[in-house]
């Protein structure tokens, strides 16, 4: 195999010739492909800016394959190291200096394969973990002082973002600790990432006055969706993706058939049945009849993707000064102050039912529309009084 001229000096040769030592054409071709891939890796490394580090890593790898102890490898490396850069490259190659960027891809692959993180979580981790790795470069650079400087540089992060960044970077360092250096890392160095108080009102309970004011500010589409959320406690993603065909009669009771939720999809989970509240039943029938695109809520999104519709609805609701999740928080709080069975309340709002109780799981099938209807009717906005100090 001929070596390209631009890397001949670094590789120290113009051609590479090897014999497979076999008469089998298939075996020879297989071995030739392996060698070609290895040589191409060497060529790519020779063209890169980390050629010296590559050579040190290769030499350390060869010693390890021969069974040489780690301390002996380090001593041998020191014997031939001529410069401070050589010593640093040796320490990196042997693992005494951890280059964070070298481990971002393996970490993300670990999150996908073993932790089975969802795509949205993986995308978030990629953004913040890569920024973290590129900002600090080595594990030794992750000090309290440097973390403070990094947080100050990213002062535009809101409190919620800071918590996400802290969670992702902690998980990354935990991976380094358990999978790379096999030593405990002091994760408290990341405490200074969260510097802002959480002023978010995302999950605040709504008063009936706040609901009425938001309704008055909402456009017709948002208003319809808000009323469904207000009388079911369902998440925005569930309401945004309700189809006209999901409004059905079961046991002579008009019901919503929620096929989509935070971690539920119509092709992997059975639908959840919730009776329609008497306060909105006429409007729901009307929406079912006038639907043009098959959806109960006419969001008119460019994409019919689940998340696209959910995001569009959340933006519409946000324009009214509240968030969709506030309805969920309020309905859960409201039902907790009634005589409704907790398991029925959880079934209405879509919380997992009977996760720890084997008896609860046995009786899930008994939560039919007729048994849930009374719970739904306990959602009473007209008489709702909320005091945050209760």
Please explain how this structure is put together.
- The chain has 390 residues and is mainly alpha-helical.
- It has three domains: 48 residues; 93 residues, DNA polymerase, domain 1 (Orthogonal Bundle); 170 residues, Orthogonal Bundle (hpI Integrase, Chain A), CATH 1.10.443.
- The chain contains 18 helices and three strands.
- It has a three-stranded antiparallel β-sheet.
- Strand 1 and strand 2 form a beta hairpin.
- Helix 16 crosses helix 18.
- The longest helix has 23 residues.
Largest sheet: 3 strands, antiparallel
- If you consult CATH, what is the topology of the largest domain? hpI Integrase, Chain A
* Discrete helix count: 18
Q: Which term fits the overall shape?
A: elongated
Query: What are the secondary-structure elements, in order, as H or E?
Result: HHHHHHHHHHHHEEEHHHHHH
How many domains? The number is 3
* Biggest sheet, spatial arrangement of strands: 1-2-3
Average per-residue pLDDT, rounded, comes to 84
How far apart the termini lie comes to: 80 Å
- Sheet-strand content, in percent, reads under 5%
The low-confidence runs, each spanning 5 or more residues with pLDDT under 50, are 354-366
State the name of the first-level CATH class of the largest domain. Mainly Alpha
Radius of gyration: 30 Å
The structure class reads mainly alpha
* The CATH architecture of the largest domain: Orthogonal Bundle
> What is the number of E strands?
3
Helix content: 40-55%
């Amino acid at each position: 195999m001929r070596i390209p001229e631009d890397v001949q000096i670094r590789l120290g040769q113009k051609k590479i010739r090897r014999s497979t030592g076999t008469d089998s054409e298939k075996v020879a071709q297989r071995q030739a492909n392996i060698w070609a891939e290895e040589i191409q890796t060497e060529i790519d490394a020779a063209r890169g800016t980390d050629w010296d580090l590559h050579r040190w890593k290769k030499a350390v790898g060869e010693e390890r394959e021969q069974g040489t102890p780690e301390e002996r490898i380090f001593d041998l490396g020191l014997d031939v190291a001529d410069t401070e850069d050589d010593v640093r490259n040796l320490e990196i190659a042997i693992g005494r200096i951890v280059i964070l960027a070298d481990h971002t891809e393996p970490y993300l692959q670990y999150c996908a394969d073993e932790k089975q993180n969802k795509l949205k979580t993986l995308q978030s981790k990629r953004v913040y973990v890569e920024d973290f790795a590129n900002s600090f470069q080595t594990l030794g650079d992750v000090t309290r002082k440097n973390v403070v400087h990094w947080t100050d540089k990213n002062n535009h992060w809101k409190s919620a973002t800071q918590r996400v960044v802290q969670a992702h970077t902690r998980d990354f360092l935990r991976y380094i600790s358990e999978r790379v250096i096999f030593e405990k890392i002091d994760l408290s160095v990341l405490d200074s990432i969260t510097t802002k108080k959480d002023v978010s009102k995302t999950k605040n309970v709504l008063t009936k006055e706040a609901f009425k004011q938001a309704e008055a500010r909402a456009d017709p589409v948002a208003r319809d969706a808000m009323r469904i959320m207000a009388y079911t406690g369902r998440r925005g993603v569930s309401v945004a993706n309700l189809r006209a065909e999901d409004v059905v009669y079961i046991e002579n009771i008009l019901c919503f058939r929620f096929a989509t939720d935070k971690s539920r999809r119509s092709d992997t989970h059975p639908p959840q049945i919730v009776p329609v509240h008497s306060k909105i039943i006429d409007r729901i029938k009307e929406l079912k009849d006038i639907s043009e695109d098959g959806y109960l809520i006419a969001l008119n999104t460019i994409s019919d993707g689940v998340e696209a519709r959910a995001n569009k609805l959340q933006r519409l609701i946000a324009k009214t000064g509240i968030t969709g999740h506030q309805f969920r928080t309020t309905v859960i709080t409201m039902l907790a102050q009634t005589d409704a069975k907790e398991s029925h309340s959880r079934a209405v709002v879509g919380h997992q039912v009977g996760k720890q109780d084997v008896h609860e799981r046995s009786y899930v099938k008994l939560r039919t529309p007729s048994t849930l209807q009374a719970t739904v009717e306990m959602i009473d906005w007209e008489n709702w009084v909320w005091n945050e100090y209760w």
